Amino acid sequence: APHIPGPGYRELNCDDPETEQAALAAVDYINSNLLRGYKHALNQIDKVKVWPRRPTGEVFEIEIDTLETTCYALDPTPAANCSVRKLEQHAVEGDCDFHVLKQDGQFSVLFAKCDSSPDSAEDVRKVCPDCPLLAPLNDSRVAHAVEAALAAFNARNNGSYYQLVEVARAQIVPLPVSTYVEFAVAATDCVANEVTDPANCNLLAEKQYGFCKSTLTQKVAGEDVAVTCTVFPTQPVLPQLLTDGTNVPTPMVASAGPASPPAAAVMVGPMV
Amino acid sequence: GVGQPGVAVPAGPVVRPCPGRIRHFKI
């Protein structure tokens, strides 16, 4: 092949519309393959190189920064409608590398790798000296708050027994002394008010996930639990995720599971 | 500035292509 003078790739401006299209396709890919944690939004395009690809098309080698939104990964709300978590809520940033193929005007992700990290405590303190910080998810107060909230939710729920899927976020609030938690649940084949041993309950084949937010407040004579769960529409039984070496993103969160439900799905209202 | 004849004058500020604009905030 004739030697192509120069670096072999073309430079593009990071704010070029074509670059932005590639970056948005990449973030859509992440959000539709995220299995735990929260959806992310594009925040800044750091670098881009465009390599020619034989026989046709181009590959965008792109580095982007994202910010966590307040929508859980399996929430059917379109990511574009999800608010970016504010600095004072202890924001979380994603750093992602992608290879995005552009062919016949279409963008498709060939490779994705993302890592996420919370903002520093100092930065949160700068914007809000009294705001609570993210707490370690294995903190005993967090585990207790989730357990109490899930028990309260199931106790008032006359349908399926819901079991914990993951604790997504937690904060220890200094005043009033309380623990704030956000966690994901899934319906099982047990009836909530008949469960004797939750270990005998199994997730439904058609997954029905929910997302709960709860505050456990310490009182003089005990503790108060306030919990609100939003149950998402059932998910069709999904084929096993690609595992034949296709580069699925290094999840920003711990583990993998089914892709998020179709965005058109109508959400079941919040259940308190 | 007025360039001396025969001296190359920079064609104005070079637009730094990357990193691009920040859409929300930087942490």
Description:
The complex is a heterodimer of chains A (272) and B (27). Chain A is mainly β and 272 residues long. Chain A has 3 helices and 10 strands; from the N terminus they run E-H-E-E-E-E-H-H-E-E-E-E-E. Chain A starts with 9 loop residues before the first strand and ends with a strand. The model of chain A is unreliable at 240-270 (pLDDT under 50). Chain B has no helix or strand. Chain B is mostly loops. Helix content of chain B is 0%, strand content 0%. The radius of gyration of chain B is 16 Å and the shape is rod-shaped. Classes of the chains: A mainly beta (272), B little secondary structure (27). Chain A binds chain B through residues 11-16, 19-20, 41-48, 65, 67, 84, 87, 91, 93, 119-120, 123, and chain B through 15, 17-27.
Give a nutshell description of this structure.
Chain A is mainly beta. Chain A contains three helices and ten strands. Helices cover 15% and strands 40% of the residues of chain A.
What descriptive keywords fit this protein?
heterodimer; A: 272 residues; mainly beta; five-stranded antiparallel beta sheet; 15% helix; flat; disordered C terminus; B: 27 residues; little secondary structure
Tally of DSSP β-strands of chain A: 10
Question: Which quaternary structure do these chains form?
Answer: heterodimer
- The succession of helices and strands of chain A, N to C, reads EHEEEEHHEEEEE
Q: How much β-strand is present in the residues of chain B?
A: under 5%
Largest sheet of chain B: none
- Terminal Cα span of chain B: 39 Å
Poorly predicted tracts of residues of chain B: none
Task: Tell me what portion of residues of chain A adopts beta-strand conformation.
Answer: 35-45%
As laid out across the biggest beta sheet of chain A, the strand order is: 1-2-3-4-5
